[in-house]
Write a structure and sequence with these properties.
Layout (H helix, E strand, L loop, with lengths): L15 E4 L5 E6 L5 H9 L3 H8 L8 H8 L6 E8 L2 E11 L12 E8 L8 H15 L4 E6 L4 H8 L5 E6 L2 E7 L4 H23 L3 E5 L8 H11 L5 E5 L9 E2 L2 E4 L11 E4 L6 H11 L3 E4 L9 H16 L3 E3 L5 E4 L6 E4 L7 E8 L2 H14 L9 E6 L8 H9 L6 E6 L5 H12 L4 E5 L17 H10 L3 E3 L2 H13 L7 E6 L2 H13 L3 E2 L3 E2 L6 H13 L5 E6 L3 E2 L6 H18 L5 E5 L3 H11 L11 E2 L4 H12 L16 E2 L2 H22 L14 H12 L5 E2 L2 H9 L8 E3 L3 H11 L3 E5 L13 E5 L2 H15 L2 H4 L1 E5 L5 E10 L3 E8 L2 H6 L2 E5 L4 H9 L18 H17 L3 E11 L4 E3 L2 E5 L17
Parallel strand pairs: 5-6, 9-10, 9-13, 10-12, 13-14, 14-15, 18-19, 18-20, 20-21, 21-22, 23-24, 23-25, 23-26, 26-28, 28-30
Antiparallel strand pairs: 1-2, 2-3, 3-4, 4-5, 6-8, 7-8, 11-12, 16-17, 16-19, 27-29, 31-41, 32-35, 33-34, 33-35, 36-37, 36-39, 37-38, 39-40, 39-41
Helix pairs in contact: 6-11, 8-9, 10-14, 11-12, 12-13, 14-20, 15-20, 16-17, 17-19, 23-24, 27-28
């Protein structure tokens, strides 16, 4: 009998933490010879019915032979995996490779029998589905392409596990047994099933943290002050609807409560379940708390304690151990070094944070890695939440701190289908898994706006993020492609979020401007033009306008079919009146704007209000004192819009946000025209993305006719036998590209003047002479290219000039190439980034485009619509479409070339880099004048593998 190490060492890379359907976690790992006792203990806890389903007969206990067989694996032909919680088995799966006769076999046999056993207490948690994903990945790694399983017809749950997996399968029934056979190659359906399960599991894991029925704060000081005591007070004062416990091992044994809250010396002393523990003890005491929480069945931890990865190498290792320890008990962690969590839902009312101000309830989901940024965002939303007719606040808030476990991706999964969140705002210091984030962002943005500020791009210490070679601008472009509204500052984050939270999306870029200041209207007009919007001439209502005038003008503007959005501008006016008239004036303006907006609920309305510096402040201060004589100094009219905007929050803020579909419309107000217009421009672009995403493009079938995918694969396999990383030569590059219908303009080497003449004779005049040395390649501005050489005399003269100017032919590497039709020089590149995936880039050739970084990017594969937008999204795109009377070039041919490059890289991930430079796009057709291709084993794609949590 072979031992576990007869053929392969222990495959540690198969170990993984997974999130189960109910939001808990489990660890999946290979079964070894050391697991005999665990296996026996596990089997004893399985019901007789489950044992019968597994072995097709009563099987009360495992024999010694069974235990040996189920714990001794060669990790190639026989593999067993276990799902564990707290170190104990909760489920197992194994496969045995078989031949065509159904008997045990070795490679090259590519089929295996698979069987599961799940402890009854853990059935229904999605354990078997997770194990199937992992055992399938292991099998593919070992050359197995197909699984077979025999299941009793009554074992409906297990049949469902197989049939719901999404693999291509066959089913047969013989001798009272259902036999299922299915291929292990991922399909579109199997990936869709996997992503759906991932979303449900990760969403549920965050939901358990944000909607607990009971919370224990561990580390509550006996005296006032301190982190633990502050959080405990915030939870109590905000009105948490569940059970709340204070925990401190220093409490006297006879202390039963603290400020009316049940007090305990340890989590284990609490009589009843604890869903979430907020940990606020010094880092050296956290392991003891984690063990207590795990033993008590706590579902999740919010670790506020510092002293982890942010403090250096020792803290980084402490953080890794924290994650491993918590996951061993099936718990997820927010933190460490977190600021806390908030859920304003009336059924929960949880403020387990250090927020200095009580957050207003609303429909904005807020995520911040940084506690300081979290404080700033909550404070700004608190101050800015008051619109012209109500309040916009927070539904849920998560500050992830060091983001050791729960990340922005997890919270995004939760917000995707959270009915209480309409808009998602995120401050990200780094994006740990860009490929997954863009996938989740695209799906979320199709349902609700996602606004992101990305920090410096440098991950804080301790963040285990995958390195990306892509420039920051490229990452930003890919996020925009996924529908992310990317802004530069937290001020813009709040500005855009407030607009999107309660205003409808604009149907186009046409903007009406009206207000009581001609100058402010013109400023708003100029800002609209600068942001690419299409404003109409501002309507000046004059400073004498009253609320009724605003109502009538706004109603007319909204009713105009040529208007997609309205910006109302207001400045203070000097006039007579008493301070006591302010409240009535406030309500009058609010009602005027609200009632007008209600008449056309499908168009957004924004308000810009501007103070007059110290004068406005002084006048406002004067009216805020006791009533003064009529002969007193002039002051702002109490019924003027500026006063309404200044004080409306206090007079009309509701205790709870309006329910979805409520007729009350919150009209956001901005202190500067530029800020309002920028927020509106973001909304316009996002609305356009939503419309386009609703009708996705496709890859035209017309390009399939001259694509030889199998021939390209054979060629690539042969080339890779020469080395792991290989830049192809000219002939090999042309041969490979030709398999995908990409013809490269022929270029012949010219090592001497005579060789150049011979090449020109073969190609036909006129020709071009080019230096291809790295420092001169694609640098026509340096004089390394001679064009339109009509005969031998011109060619020899050009050859002599090049060698005299730049060096010997060996240094120049000159080539002769037939002249291509005149057009616009462009560059197409594709690269596989280890973090973001395959990226297609396009721009015009030349130094100017490089200096301006005028390059557009899309994730591969691209559709026809994405190829078209790629061409049009660079700032120099007008050069392709007849700028200043030039002849437009053949952009359809350019778009087809982009699709072919995308298809090549998507079909063959071994093609890790492609450059076509220059691609001359003429009025009819195009010419690829230079090309390079690099082959290498592709980076591992975790998005195609089984679901896993980041490894620690």
């Amino acid at each position: 009998m072979q031992s576990a190490s007869d053929r392969h060492e222990y495959p540690a890379h198969w170990e993984a933490d997974v999130v189960l359907r109910d939001g808990g976690t489990a660890r999946i790992r290979p079964i070894t010879v050391d697991d005999a006792d665990r296996l026996v203990s596990f089997y004893e806890q399985v019901s007789d019915e489950s044992k019968y389903y597994r072995f097709f007969a009563p099987y009360p206990r495992l024999s010694a032979k069974d235990v040996h067989r189920f714990t001794h694996h060669d990790f190639v032909d026989r593999v067993g995996l276990a799902a564990t919680i707290g170190g104990e088995f909760i489920a197992t799966v194994r496969y045995d490779r078989i031949g065509a006769d159904g008997m045990p076999a070795s490679a090259p046999a590519d089929e295996a029998e698979v069987a599961f056993l799940v402890q009854d207490a853990h059935q229904g948690r999605g354990v078997a589905s997770a194990l199937l994903e992992h055992i399938g990945a292991v099998a593919r790694e070992r050359g197995i392409r197909r699984f077979a399983a025999e299941v009793l017809p009554a074992n409906v749950k297990m049949i469902k596990v197989f049939t719901d997996a999404g693999y291509t399968q066959k089913r047969s029934f013989e001798d009272g047994v259902v036999r299922l056979e299915f291929d292990l190659e991922p399909t579109d359906r199997s990936l869709a099933v996997q992503y759906a399960r991932e979303q449900r599991a990760e969403s549920r894991s965050v939901q358990r943290l944000l909607t607990p029925g009971s919370v224990a704060v561990v580390g509550v000081g006996r005296a006032e002050g301190g982190v633990g005591r502050s959080v405990l007070g915030n939870i109590r004062d905000y009105g948490f609807t569940g059970r709340l416990y204070a925990v401190n091992k220093a409490f006297p044994e006879d202390q039963k409560d603290l400020d009316g809250i049940s007090a305990h010396r340890s989590v284990g002393d609490i009589d009843g379940p604890v869903d979430v523990a907020v940990v606020a003890v010094p880092a050296e005491h956290v392991p003891e708390v984690v063990a207590e929480c795990g033993a008590h069945g706590v579902q999740g931890l919010v670790v506020l304690s510092a002293g982890y990865a942010e403090s250096g190498p020792e803290g980084r290792e402490r953080q890794r151990e924290l994650v491993r320890h918590a996951r061993a008990y099936g718990m997820r962690i927010i933190g460490p070094n977190a600021f806390g969590i908030i859920n304003t839902h009336p059924d929960v009312r949880l403020n387990a944070s250090l927020a200095p101000e009580t957050p207003r309830p609303g429909r904005i989901g807020l995520f911040a890695q940084s506690g300081a940024i979290g404080i700033a965002l909550l404070s700004r939303l608190h101050r800015r939440g008051g619109g012209v007719t109500g309040v916009t606040g927070v539904s849920t808030f998560v500050s992830s701190g060091n983001r050791a476990d729960v990340s922005g991706n997890d919270v995004l999964q939760y917000w995707y289908d959270d009915p209480d969140t309409d808009v998602v705002l995120m401050y990200l210091e780094s994006i740990g898994n860009p490929r997954k984030f863009t996938r989740l962002a695209r799906r979320t943005a199709a349902a609700k706006p996602l606004v992101v500020v990305q920090g410096s791009g440098t991950a804080p210490q301790g963040h285990a993020v995958r390195a990306t070679r892509l420039p920051r601008a490229t990452v930003s472009a890919l996020l925009r492609q996924a529908g992310v509204i990317q802004v530069d500052t937290i001020t813009e984050l709040v500005d855009t979020g407030l607009l999107l939270a309660r205003q409808p999306l604009p149907t186009g870029p046409r903007v009406a401007i009206l207000g009581n200041s001609e100058s402010l209207g013109l400023l708003t007009y100029d800002a609209c033009v600068a942001e690419g919007l299409r404003p109409s001439t501002p309507l000046d209502l004059t400073t004498a306008a009253v609320p009724e005038d605003f109502h009538a003008a706004l109603a007319r503007a909204l009713a105009d079919d040529s208007c997609d959005a309205v910006i109302v501008t207001a400045i203070p006016a000097v006039g007579e009146g008493t301070a006591g008239e302010g409240t009535a004036g406030d309500a009058a303006l609010a009602e005027a704007l609200r009632s007008a907006a209600e008449q056309v609920p499908g168009k957004p309305v924004l308000v810009v209000h501007v103070e007059l510096g110290g004068l406005a402040e002084a006048l406002s201060a004067a009216t805020s004192t006791a009533p003064q004589a009529a002969a007193g100094p002039p002051r702002i009219r109490a019924d003027h819009p500026f006063r309404a905007l200044d004080r409306l929050r206090a007079t009309q803020a509701p205790a709870q946000p309006p329910a979805p579909g409520n007729s009350d419309r919150l009209i956001p107000a901005y202190p500067a025209a530029e800020r309002a217009v920028r927020a509106l421009a973001d909304a316009v672009q996002y609305a356009q993305w939503r419309r386009e995403a609703a009708e996705p493009g496709k890859v035209p079938e017309s390009i399939d006719a001259d694509i030889d995918e199998k021939g390209a694969a054979t060629l690539i396999d042969g080339l890779l036998t020469r080395g792991q990383g290989l830049t192809l030569g000219t002939e090999e590059t042309c041969e490979l590209l030709a398999k995908y219908g990409i013809q490269v303009h022929r270029a012949l080497p010219a090592t001497t003047a005579d060789a150049a003449v011979q090449a020109a004779a073969a190609l036909g005049y006129p020709v071009a002479l080019k230096a291809t040395a790295p420092h001169l390649r694609h640098r026509a501005d340096l004089g390394g290219v001679r064009l339109d050489l009509a005969d031998e005399e011109q060619l020899r003269r050009a050859y002599t000039e090049l060698t005299e100017l730049f060096g010997t032919p060996d240094e120049l590497r000159p080539v002769v190439q037939g002249m291509a039709p005149r057009g616009v020089d462009t560059v197409i590149r594709a690269v596989i980034d280890p973090a973001a995936g395959a990226v297609l880039s396009f721009g015009l050739a030349g130094a100017a485009s490089q200096l301006l970084d005028d390059t557009a990017h899309r994730l591969i594969p691209v559709t026809d619509r994405e190829a078209a937008t790629l061409v049009r999204s660079i700032r120099t795109a007008p050069l392709l479409f007849g700028w200043r009377g030039s002849t437009p070039v053949d952009t359809p041919a350019l778009e087809e070339l982009l699709l072919r490059v995308s298809r090549l890289v998507d079909d063959h991930p071994e093609v890790v880099a492609v450059t076509l430079e220059p691609v001359v796009v003429a009025p009819r057709g195009l010419s690829v004048l230079g090309a390079s291709v690099r082959l290498a084993p592709p980076p591992a794609r975790d998005d195609l593998g089984p679901r896993t949590l980041p490894a620690y």
